[in-house]
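fwd from M.: "can u put these together and see what the complex looks like"

so here's what she sent:
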Amino acid sequence: MSTLSREENEMVMMSSEESSNDSELELGLGLSLGGGKAKFKPPSPAAATAAGGGSWDQYARILTAKDFRSGVSTKTSSSSSSSSSSVTKANINGSCGTKRTAESPSSPPGLGVTLFVISLILGESGTTLDKISQVVGWPPVRSYRMNSLANNAKSPVTKDFFSTVDKCKSKNIVVDKNNITKEKGVRKTSLFVKVNMDGIPIGRKVDLNAHSCYETLARALDDMFRPSAAVGPRRSNVDEQGVVAGTRQSLQLLDSSSDFVLTYEDKEGDWMLVGDVPWEMFLNSVRRLRIMRTAEANGLGGHDVKIRFELEFERAWKIVLLADVTK
Amino acid sequence: MLNYFPEEVLEHVFDFVTSHRDRNAVSLVCKSWYSVERFSREKVFIGNCYAVNPERVIARFPRVRSLTLKGKPHFADFNLVPPDWGGYVYPWIEAMAKHGINLEELRLKRMVVSDESLELLAKSFPNFKSLVLVSCEGFTTDGLAAIASNCRFLRELDLQENEVDDRKGQWLSCFPDSCTSLISLNFACLKGEVNAAALERLVARCPNLRSLRLNHAVPLDTLQKILTQAPQLNDLGTGSFVHDPDSETCGKLKNAMKKCKSIRSLSGFLDVNARCLPAVYPICTNLTSLNLSYAPGIYSNDLIKLICHCKKLERLWVCFFIKLIHYTYFFSGVPLSNQGLNWIMQILDTIGDKGLGAVASTCKELQELRVFPSDLYGVGNAGVTEEGLVAISAGCPKLNSILYFCQQMTNAALITVAKNCPNFIRFRLCTLNPTIPDAVTNLPLDEGFGAIVQSCKGLKRLSVSGLLTDQVFLYIGMYAEQLEMLSIAFAGDSDKGMLYVLNGCKKLKKLEIRDSPFGNVALLADVGKYETMRSLWMSSCEVTFGACKTLAEKMPRLNVEIINEGEEIEASPDDRHRVEKMYLYRTLVGPRRDAPDFVWTL
């Protein structure tokens, strides 16, 4: 853990515009294009050069849990886009919500790792946003256009982002019953994938197309794998909440504080956390699932940090940045 | 002296009078002009289908060949009007068929069009040439098949933003081989597939085809084949624009595009691989109209590159959107747990103010700009702020029409825009938070909009939003002398606001208000005013039943409709009860007979 945190802190490098906001950041991951000793390719050549390099800075800043809770409105000194509150989900390893002081903007010499500075810029605070979104007919966009974009584009991440409620419920409160966004598509045929759980020798299979959101999938897996006396010998680790002989306690796979985490292998063979991407995108890339012990997944202390970016609307390509952490 | 002109001469002169407003004016001069005019009018425009009935129109204009009808109120676009409210076209088609009208063109907006209507239309008018449906509903591809099969001289089938049920019949294949007259075909709003081979053959045999807009289901290779057959196109709407950019197909597409030297208008990209976009660069130099508002798949950098080629652009529609970036840390190839470094972030890669800056520096001929949000909550468009608007106004002096969704606005920006662009005819601003104040001063946006109306003396259409007091309406009433349509939402403090508008805007035709504190005093102050207007919509305001009844009693030539949704329709509702939705309009024919249960005409 401490190794990780030191590396993280050493990796901090904020763009100069963000310096005033440092104290608000729990953890800074700074990636500024063209700055620092970046040993990576910019995620997209076009992006880097668009209207002058370093343009990512202008609307890129790390999000933190603090931003998420307070919905603080932050203004950067940059002239353009970024001018409103920022929100994110930030869970730091083993210490959800723990605050850390961010490093000063200039990274100590010799570290040379700069990562991405991204910011989420949203509208007003979360509550205002909810209120706005519940006003019928606002913003005044023709329902045909709304429906069309909702059908064609992937579901906006903000839905996953803000709705802590069951994702299966229609989130489209703006548009009324005439809305056809949700559940419009024809149900595909089955999409069975293997599921293995650490410590259980026998894997199962689950039909992903029988589900429309992560919650129901998690519940189904829970039912499948929930430890009970019937299952074979299990680990005897005390801190595993999931294993209490005789009781049927939920695995809480989507809960960050659970001792199990649900991961999946995507088309490119990388293991990803389930729940990050919009459901449809997940369906498109998942090959198999694995319920992993959290403990195993924690800080194994590798030197390489592979950061994967997935652009929601560009399923065709993913950017992998490799940043070497030099000691 | 003009009375001594024989009628034929008058008729000939009137042929040159084409706008319906001018024609209306001509008909008021004297009885003989009225008579000559009515027999010679071929194009009739009816802004509210319930203001008059088909029989009267046919009686007055027996030689009508082209009919334009508008049905539901504008706010129906935003789901404020329940379905089944009305706006049926069938009675019109039926009446015209019965009276032997030689109908050639029918243009409908916000009307309910059934398959039966389309079938009757197709079979009743042998010379029928042109069908334009905008924001209509109620029909399926079966109705389109009837049109395709029966209208032998069809020139135009233009479907814009309609909700159409796809019946999986091959409607496009119903165009007979003898159909060679198509000039314009737009089926972009259809969701189902059309037979590609039939489409290619249709295009090949219609040498006069100028406008073609495909739907989502038409793949890129079909587009490429079509373009080789139709290099004479003026207006192209691509369907899907997804392919391997290095493929032979894309190469052929680019070559085909190079030969299409007449394309001036481009739209579509309903599904897009941005790396295929360079295929359209050859036609960009001559484009005057570009609609990318249904293409959220084009990110700002690709968008900017595209726009940089479009120096002659006069009309631009774009949208902005969120691009999601997911961020997972890996250690030794194994993902960290949720407790690990797991960030969800969004990058706003929108057209953004930066993109608008590119537009401002490239598109000096720009006259019309529309910037839409593309996601439902309107988040992620902080990229479009007042700065983008100011940049556009500075760079595009010919700008006269704007629809701008943005996350924030300031008075200073609006004042600057007003100075830069005094030529606005349409100015519609929509802040995503409807009551957001000036982003810098926290004051209402009264002064900003005041500057707009003061500077833009030709302003005909205005939509306001943001935090607004009665003051803005004082300005509007004082300065907006040419204003014909005004849209108000979540604005104003008291009846005074509405009164300023009703008293001041002499040319006001349509007023629509929602969620604003205007009540009975304003409604009843000048009841005669409403006969000079086409319609008034008020929803979630302070108007009561009693006042509406009073108004209806005083003005027999208005239909005052109360829309009750989900409420019990009591025999005599309390006069003090607030009315949720009221729509009133002038009419020559009294209460309509096709109103559903939930609509009361007082």
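replying to her w this: The longest strand of chain B covers residues 323-331.
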